C-alpha cells in the first residue's frame, strides 16, 4: 500500500528528510518536482541524487556497481 506524503516542509516524511539531508540538489534540500530519485545502498546510505529529467536507464551504471 502506498499513500501520498509530504516531501518538503515541516510535515515532510522522515525518510525524505533523511535522504535530502544526505544529498541536496540544485535547490538545496528542497524537492522541486516529482520523480527526484535517490540511490541508496544496502546499508541505507544515500549515495546519489538524480533530478526528475534523469532517465532511469542513465542510472544503470551506478546501480550495477551496487549489485
Automatic annotation (TrEMBL):
Keywords: Oxidoreductase, Peroxidase. It comes from the Eukaryota. The keyword Oxidoreductase applies. Signal peptide: none annotated. Transmembrane segments: none annotated. The keyword Glycosyltransferase does not apply. PANTHER family: GLUTATHIONE PEROXIDASE, PHOSPHOLIPID HYDROPEROXIDE GLUTATHIONE PEROXIDASE. Belongs to the glutathione peroxidase family. This is Glutathione peroxidase.
Amino acid at each position: 500500500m502506498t499513500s501520498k506524503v509530504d516531501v518538503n516542509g515541516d510535515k515532510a516524511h522522515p525518510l525524505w528528510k533523511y535522504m535530502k539531508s544526505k544529498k541536496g540538489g540544485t535547490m538545496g534540500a528542497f524537492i522541486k518536482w516529482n520523480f527526484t530519485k535517490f540511490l541508496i545502498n544496502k546499508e541505507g546510505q544515500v549515495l546519489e541524487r538524480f533530478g526528475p529529467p534523469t532517465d532511469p536507464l542513465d542510472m544503470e551504471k551506478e546501480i550495477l556497481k551496487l549489485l
